[in-house]
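User: Hi! I have a protein structure encoded as tokens and I'd like to know what sequence might fold into it. I'm fairly new to this, so please keep things simple.
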């Protein structure tokens, strides 16, 4: 049944407002992470030797694998949105599911990495870490805070995609009503971009 002109106009206005709201939210997130990046830069310039020594203990291969996981998941999410716009609902559902699986894989790798560091006594205020230079202590403190907050954002993103997947499967999200999926995709891409900056900061410090 065709939608009344007034209702269609109202729906478009609502969708535009929702997208604007998401962009404003992402801007606040950018300011938040930008502040942490600035703090990192200040300490990095003051304790370059300590940061370099601490970063040498990071597993670059593991970090690169997690980077590949997130970049591929971002591609899958983009394909999910594009497929839905073309009416390919089944493919969109599969792509969203793939995004979730890769996000979970990222968190699993990060958890394993954290546990390995904790097992070696490299965690905030640990006796082992406190015996090291002030720069190394700051490095690992920032590492846990920044990657931890990023991991929380990944978990939130996974939860949101799980919701959009369920709604897409039920027909609540369609090519004509795709705003929620598009906004979720924007959030997921933002999370991926943040990691692209975190990876070189903590794994490729020179």
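Assistant: Happy to help. Inverse folding works backwards from shape to sequence: for each of the 206 positions I chose a residue that suits the local structure. Here it is:
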């Amino acid at each position: 049944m065709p939608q009344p002109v007034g209702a269609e106009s109202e729906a478009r206005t609502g969708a535009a407002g929702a997208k604007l709201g998401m962009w404003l939210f992402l801007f606040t997130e950018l300011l938040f992470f930008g502040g942490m990046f600035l703090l990192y830069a200040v300490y990095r310039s003051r304790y370059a030797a300590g940061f370099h020594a601490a970063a040498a203990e990071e597993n670059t291969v593991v970090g690169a694998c997690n980077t590949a996981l997130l970049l591929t998941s971002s591609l899958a999410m983009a394909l999910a949105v594009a497929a839905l716009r073309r009416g390919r609902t089944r493919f969109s559902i599969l792509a969203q599911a793939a995004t979730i699986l890769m996000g979970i894989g990222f968190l699993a790798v990060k958890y394993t990495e954290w546990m390995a560091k904790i097992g070696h006594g490299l965690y905030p205020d640990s006796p082992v870490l406190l015996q090291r230079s002030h720069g190394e202590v700051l490095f690992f403190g920032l590492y846990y805070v920044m990657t931890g907050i990023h991991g929380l954002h990944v978990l939130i993103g996974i939860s949101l995609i799980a919701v959009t997947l369920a709604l897409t499967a039920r027909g609540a999200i369609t090519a004509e009503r795709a705003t929620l999926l598009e906004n979720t995709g924007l959030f997921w891409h933002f999370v991926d971009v943040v990691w692209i900056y975190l990876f070189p900061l903590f794994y490729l410090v020179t």
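A useful reference point when you look it over: The chain has seven helices and no strands. Feel free to ask if any position seems puzzling.
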